């Protein structure tokens, strides 16, 4: 049977989600009124879990699409752990998240957290606006009632307000010795999958860069020198733990898998630790997959050290939050109706997308504004999906508006909530991986949206248009691409500009 594609933009629920559903033939409608689980005797309707599932699905698909350079993809049918697909795993995780929100609501009073009558009115208004903005067909696909939307928004509000009280007792004392960071610049030239002659040429290039850098002295511009040898080469700035023993202790105690030193090969680290401020590595550094030329900037980079302190504190906060909430889940009396849960599916012919034009929610209410809804006529699967625009009238044929241009003024600074345009190349162990590059085409990202993995977005805060930023992240253990799951990657990011 030929699959037909129906795209429907659904009004935002929590300020981050809009849904474009690709409904396959014979798609079964959900019964959102059925009880999918009970938590300490409180029944959870399937409709609420459906909202959570679709929100998570939308965010994951947006992230995956960005890493695939906008190419088509299939992820949800892939095998994950314990004989489950990633789609099945996503449903189970969303149910767990909803269960936790119900527990948080019950424990809120213990942390002096409340949702006031005024909050409830705003939530009710937002839920009513959500229902009014969406078609009956769309609401049937989501299997939600207005009361369920209100409940979900209320639960999200409790979850948001419980976060800070839960981590209030974290030890925020981090010594300079523990956090001290050194900064450096480097050029990495990959030799992966090259012939012997090509590798020889790459080594000659690396040696030429090193010789020219030495001739220029400590004031030499490594990036300009690299590009003078080959325009495809460029330098990247990085940091690492100055105190190696403290870094190891921090990694052991805090499970800080994103320790900055671990992002670079041992051969590189061995040389860097012998250098002083402004010194250049004496030789081209050779690893199994790359040649490196390095120059130490500062043994003690105060700005990077302060950033590291905040990272250590954040790691401690995350651990306390996770340990506490996991214990709550373990102690709760939870019963899951597995037959009901199996009716909620995440598949590759039922995709969702995020509307970045939607404003962020306030703490007082999970959503107070509802964007307009657009619907596109039925198309075959091969037809390209039209991009969402800032403002589109409710019509069967959305008009294409001119895309806003970003500002390249280098005096601007990236802050939380900014929409930026970036390019990046991702590498694992110094080798670029498939789907990890924008190929110079640029991509938009809203800082703080949670679209990208780990703390990718946070590491761009403070950068300026034209800056090159090295971003180190760890792919989730359950990441859809098995060859990336659990691995640390370094992204060389260029900030092209900031939208105003």
From TrEMBL:
<keyword id="KW-0697">Rotamase</keyword>
<protein>
    <recommendedName>
        <fullName>peptidylprolyl isomerase</fullName>
        <ecNumber>5.2.1.8</ecNumber>
    </recommendedName>
</protein>
<feature type="domain" description="PPIase FKBP-type">
    <location>
        <begin position="417"/>
        <end position="500"/>
    </location>
</feature>
<dbReference type="InterPro" id="IPR046357">
    <property type="entry name" value="PPIase_dom_sf"/>
</dbReference>
<dbReference type="InterPro" id="IPR001179">
    <property type="entry name" value="PPIase_FKBP_dom"/>
</dbReference>
<dbReference type="InterPro" id="IPR027304">
    <property type="entry name" value="Trigger_fact/SurA_dom_sf"/>
</dbReference>
<feature type="region of interest" description="Disordered">
    <location>
        <begin position="357"/>
        <end position="407"/>
    </location>
</feature>
<feature type="domain" description="PpiC">
    <location>
        <begin position="179"/>
        <end position="298"/>
    </location>
</feature>
<dbReference type="InterPro" id="IPR000297">
    <property type="entry name" value="PPIase_PpiC"/>
</dbReference>
<feature type="compositionally biased region" description="Low complexity">
    <location>
        <begin position="357"/>
        <end position="374"/>
    </location>
</feature>
<dbReference type="GO" id="GO:0003755">
    <property type="term" value="F:peptidyl-prolyl cis-trans isomerase activity"/>
</dbReference>
<dbReference type="Pfam" id="PF00254">
    <property type="entry name" value="FKBP_C"/>
</dbReference>
<keyword id="KW-0413">Isomerase</keyword>
<feature type="region of interest" description="Disordered">
    <location>
        <begin position="233"/>
        <end position="265"/>
    </location>
</feature>
<feature type="compositionally biased region" description="Low complexity">
    <location>
        <begin position="394"/>
        <end position="404"/>
    </location>
</feature>
